[in-house]
Amino acid sequence: MAKAIMIQGTMSNAGKSLLAAGLCRIFKQDGYRVAPFKSQNMALNSFITEEGLEMGRAQVMQAEAAGIKPSVLMNPILLKPTNDVGSQVIVNGEVLGNMSARDYFAYKKKLIPDIMKAYDTLAAENDIIVIEGAGSPAEINLKQDDIVNMGMAKLAKAPVLLVGDIDRGGVFAQLIGTVMLLEDDEKEMVKGLIINKFRGDKTILDPGVEMLEERSGIPVVGVAPYLQIEVEDEDSLTERFDSQQEVGQIDIAVIRVPRISNFTDFNPFENIPGVSLRYVKHIHELKHPDMVILPGTKNTMGDLQWMRESGMEAAVLKLAAAGTVIFGVCGGYQMLGETLSDPDGVEAGGTMKGMGLLPMDTVFADGKTRTRVSGTFGQVEGELSQLSGVELEGYEIHMGVTTLHKGASPLTTIRDHAKTTEEKQDGAYTSRVYGTYVHGVFDKEGVAEAVIRALGKKKGIDTSEMKGVDFQTFKETQYDILAAALREHLDMKAIYEILEAGV
Q1: Residue 438 and residue 380: Cα distance in Å, rounded?
Q2: What is the pLDDT of residue 234?
Q3: Which domain, by its residues, includes 433?
Q4: Residue 470 lies in a domain
Q5: What whole-number percentage of the chain has pLDDT above 70?
Q6: Is 439 annotated as catalytic?
Q7: Given 330, 398, 417, 489, which residue is catalytic?
Q8: Which position among 24, 398, 439, 489 bears the catalytic label?
Q9: To the nearest whole number, what is the mean pLDDT of the chain?
């Protein structure tokens, strides 16, 4: 069975996912078979495996760093919030159902056999398992029947590295306070502390590190720097949303709806020189973009209602009327149609008017489409005609069936990887409004560039130097940069000793 090491944090967004990915890459580089694991993930960013199963994207990113294919074994439980007090519960990649927070809290211990079956399968196939926790292990109200922090560490007999975020301030109180709130047997499992996201001269920090070790009785095994690494973020806490990016020669605005999901769909645009990708939540942030993207959402009807009440829908419709290109993905694509109907109460129930920009109707039902796909754009007309014939690949993950009106033009022809001989048409478009169900539609080399060429042509500017990159190759270089930085700033000798000694 594999040896295990676990990364826990003092809070959400302390950097657990990135550090786990970095350790996965280091262990891979050192010749070990390594896999990531997170028993329970709460995120709206999800992924569909080759088997058509759903898992959190953080473990997909970590699997890429480990050089292996993503497997639902790496994330047996995924919670996708549907509102402030409830989530869709996904177990082993399949939808179990919707539960309130209270109901799930009472139920979750029944999922331990599923967790351990997944973990043990991974452990039998690998040398090292890098486990990621969630939030903080010191959430007193959640400690009972915990299955993702110290509860998981005990199940896997994994030593813990506790990570604090110095960038947000108060890192010493974070680390000391977390340790103090742990039970005695839990404290004994914490074998190392890591200060993360440090900027500046480390020697200034040394007295604090000494005090931290003295008061906690736990060694500090590294002070990791603040890294500008371009890898996929786990959830809406991503700093991408808060960056005040300047408008580039080609400007793309993504509407930040309240339940935005799979916003990593748009990462390829971030790596093209001269292109700005901005996430906008308020009308005054919208400005005059060259393209507006309506992203995926866990609640299409609820987020369309938010767009309507906030004035964002009216602003987008005004831009569309003035000639701005509009592109919808998944839930954003559904919003662009004439009507949204929910006879079975899958979302909000009832029927509501769509934005009326594409000639189609969507009906929600209990069945969930989950599949990986590949295909090509059709003979596309209008502003994005340069997409014609370009290959694409990605995955579908949505509730609802969309029916085009007679005479409407589908955007792509795609093939379900699980049904190799069958093709189907996807999406729709008019002269300046486009939509698709395919997540990752811009990932394949050539798609994002074709969009930029089309927008540049419309604007009358030269985009010949605005070249994208092969996104998979780019991510590989980012994992190597991450590993090199962690090797420099973490005591890997101590971490290997912790891994070897166990608990």
Answers
A1: 16
A2: 60
A3: 250-465
A4: no
A5: 97
A6: yes
A7: 330
A8: 439
A9: 92
